[in-house]
TrEMBL record:
Coiled-coil region: 299-401, 427-457, 501-538
PROSITE patterns recorded: FERM_1, FERM_2, FERM_3
Cell location: Cell membrane
Stated name of the protein: NF2, moesin-ezrin-radixin like (MERLIN) tumor suppressor a
Transmembrane segments: none
Residues the record lists as binding a 1,2-diacyl-sn-glycero-3-phospho-(1D-myo-inositol): 62-65, 280
Organism field: Dicentrarchus labrax
Amino acid sequence: MQYETCSIGRETHHCIILQLFWGLVKWKGKDLFDLVCRTLGLRETWFFGLRYDIKDTVAWLKMEKKVLDQEVPKEEPITLHFLAKFYPENAEEELVQDITQHLFFLQVKKKILEEEIHCPPEASVLLASYAVHAKYGDYDPSVHNPGFLAEEDLLPKRVINLYQMTAEMWEERITACYAEHRGRTRDEAEMEYLKIAQDLDMYGVNYFLIRNKKGTDLLLGVDALGLHIYEPDNRLTPKCSFPWNEIRNISYSDKEFTIKPLDKKTNVFKFNSSRLRVNKLILQLCIGNHDLFMRRRRVDSLEVQQMKAQAREERARKQVERQRLQREKQLREEAERARDELERRLMQLQDEAHMANEALLRSEQTADLLAEKAQIAEEEAKLLAQKAAEAETEMQRIKVTAIRGQEERRLMEQKMLEAEMLALKMAEESERRAKEAEQLKQDLQEAKESERRAKHKLLEITSRAVYTSPGLPPDSMPPDLSFSRENLSFDFKDTDMKRLSMEIEKEKVEYMEKSKHLQEQLNELKTEIESLKLKERETPLDIIHNKNTDDSLHLAPGPFFSEFLLSWTPLEEGDR
């Protein structure tokens, strides 16, 4: 025989799988069952049994018969499942041993996850939180980081598919409930799990397909409280129930099963099952559940009383031990908190000392900087005072200069007005001189024309005199000719022409010098007052005047005198 203990530890399977090999021993079912119970340290043996699979149903190993004489599978090795066969009405009151409680917890949890027991979504989340507490103990946020339940199978697939929620969202809700269970032991968490699960409608119920006399398909449910009849599609709400205390007799004949109520006035309920083996199983479960039902309502046996006393002592011892551990844990946590507080205070003092040193250094540096800044500020104050004095002086100078500038501008405007008057007078003088020059030019032209005619006449006379009397002396010329020469000499004296030319040249030079001096004076006045001019106040006439002035700078000294110079050409020496 080889067996595997799969439910002793906290993380193991919910049952024990036993593998028997042919030819080893001829044990009865009770011998094998007792071996398993002794191995587990289980004393509440009346809840459990060894189950095996046979064709399309299951069967429980009979205690009084040999294992190999029963309908166990004939292949090697033989596999048997150690499971809870009967369920308690109140797990908290009936389950005494921790191992019994743990085995029930594992089996019920498996049935809920495999949806053999229907569980609402909200109850599934709460049961999952207790299952997590039973495995991990108290919630510790520093240890149980987000994602620590990623590999855990905690909810039925039906519940997960019922909502549009991610695994992280489910974990968040389970963890929120898990955190509220702080302070419970793992055994207490398992018991809370069973207390919630035992209120589920399908908890501890074994279902069998039956048919009544009319041939209607029904379901028979067998549990710790009695027999229940269900619709095939509704395993939650029974159509009728027969409590164990109201049943007088249960029997079967071949495939027909009969339930006789205690009240003889009540009709006998008969139904047919699919096969005889099913009827045997139903009867076996009915007898076991009925015996436990009656046993619960009697005084506990001496063995049970001893077990409960030992359990109470063990729980009291564990409670004392847990309280001691709790106090030690609390003292350790307080010591750790005190140590952490001291370390934190030490770090804080070190930081404060470091900050004080840095502040001292900064204050020293700041004092040096402030002293330097004070010196700089004092120098700047002196400099600003000096600049203020200079600015005051400059302001006074500017005021004086402004007053002087206004006076000078007034004088300049007066000089400019005088210069313009002088220019006007000179222009009139120039015009007058131009007229005189024009008159002299006309006189000069007339003189040239007279001289030309005189020369021509003289040449004619001379030519005739030479051709008529070439041998005559000059004295022998006629008197009228001599008179004509005198007349010519009177009309064309060189001294008059030279004098006229010199006067004209002198007047030309004098006018040029006067015009140049006047132009320089006007330019100087314009330059001096130009910086004081307000352009925006210029009138259209001022703008035209400025333009004309700019254009006149490119011409000769005066318009009239320039025309006179262009028209005047001095006589050559031969012309005179």
